[in-house]
Specification:
The protein is an alpha+beta fold and about 475 residues long. The chain has twelve helices and ten strands. Helices cover about 25% and strands about 15% of the residues. The termini are far apart. It catalyses: 2 H2O2 = O2 + 2 H2O. It holds the Pfam family Catalase.
Length: about 475
Amino acid sequence: MSNVNKHLTTGTGAPVGDNQNSMTAGGRGPTLIQDVHLLEKLAHFNRERVPERVVHAKGAGAHGYFELTNDMSKYTKAKLFNGVGKRTPMFIRFSTVAGELGSADTVRDPRGFAVKFYTEEGNYDLVGNNTPIFFIRDAIKFPDFIHTQKRDPRTHLKNPNAVWDFWSLSPESLHQVTYLMGDRGIPATLRHMNGYGSHTFKWGNAEGEAVWVKYHFITEQGVKNMANDVAAKLAGENPDYHTEDLFNAIENGDFPAWRLHVQIMPLEDANTYRFDPFDVTKVWSHKDYPLIEVGRMVLNRNPENYFAEVEQATFSPGTMVPGIEASPDKMLQGRLFAYSDAHRYRVGANHNLLPINRPKVEAQNYQRDGAMRFDNNGGGSVYYEPNSFGGPKEAPQYKQTPFEVSGEAAQVAYDHNDHYTQAGNLYRLMSEDERGRLVENIVAAMKPVERDDIKLRQIQHFYKADQEYGERVAKGLNLQVPQEVK
C-alpha cells in the first residue's frame, strides 16, 4: 500500500500537526502537560518492551509449511498427520536458553526448537530443543536449574560454581551435560542442527488405540557445528550471527528444510523397557524403535515484524489437537502448565488472539474479558455453559484416550536411576577427536569453579559413565579420581 499523502496520527486516529516540536510555554518552556501527542509517544515508548522470556529470551523465527509424506492414521487421528501430501502452515522459533534478549547467538547452550502448526483442528505446538534429552526429569527442579544458568544475584555475573554444584548434585544431568559439552553444543547455524520433541507423547487413532511417540526433526542441510574459537570471535563481532544467517538464507531463496521422523512404542512396552520411556534424560534406542519418516518441514518466509511475530509468539506443550496427548513424563507434566502461564503473565491473558498465535479455525469458547481483548469479546452471545441457547458444547468423540494409572499419591522419584549408561554410550560413540574436544570444553568450563569438592563430585559422575572419561577430565583439572569410585 502506498504511503503517499498519508497523515501521521495519534493512536486514536487524530492527525498530528507537528511531530518535531513539543508544546511549550514560550520558546524556552517549560513543556505543557496538555501536549497529549508528546505524552502518548513517551508513555507508549516506555511500554514498548514486554517482559522478556525468563528462558529462551533470545530467538529467531520464520514461517513455512509442513508436508506429510507418510500417512500416520494407523497411529494418530490428528489431521495434520493424515493424508499424504497434506500441507499445514507453520511458524518456528529457534532460541538460546540461558542468555538475555541481547545475548550472543554463538554461546554453548541448548537451542529451543518450537514449532506452531496452524492445523484445521486448531493450533498444535511442538516445543522442544536441538537435543533429544534434558538436564532434569522433574519440573519441580526447573526453577532451581535455571537459576544456576542465570546471573548471580550478588555479582550479576554468570556463576560456574552454581552450575557445576547443581549438576554434580543432580547426576541425571550427566547425559545432557555430555551432549552440551560436545561438538553439538554450538551449532554452526540454526539451519544445521536437528530438533527434537525431547519428551514422550501419546498418539491415539480413530479407533481409540494409542501408542507412545518421540519426535525427531532431521536437518536436510546436514549437522554442522562451530569451533570454540570461531564462536567466541563471532560472539564479539556479530552476536546476532545465527539470526542473520537464517534471515538471509530465507530472503535469498535458500529455504532450510527438515525431515520429521518419529519413534513409536506400543503402550505395554513402557512397563518393561530397560529405561523408563518417560524419563526425558534418556533416549530410546533406534534399534529398538526405528525412525519412521512422517513429513518435511520447509521454512520459506521471514517475519515482516520481529516483535509482532517472533517476540509475541507463544508456544506451549499443552497446545495439542485431537490424536495427540501428553504422557506421564514428569517434566512434560509441569511444562503443560508453566508455559501457558508464562505467556499469560508476559504477553497477556488474550495472547492467543494475536495474529501470530491465532488459530486458522475460529475459537469457540466462553473466555471473556481481560486486558487487550481486541476482538468483539463474544459480542452478546451466551457466556456460560451448559446453556440452552445454542452455544458451543463439548464433543465426546474428542475425549482423550485413557491410560491406566495406579499407586499412592506421594512425592516419588523415577524408579530407574541409571544415570550413567547412556552418557557413557554417548561418550564411546564419539571419535577420539570429538572426545578430546569434549574433555577440553568440560575442563575449561570447570576450571573457574572455586571448590575442589564440587569438581571431584562431578568427576565421579564422568568416571561412572566411562572410566577414561572421568580420568581425562580429572587430569585436565590436575585432580585424581576419588578412590571410592574406582
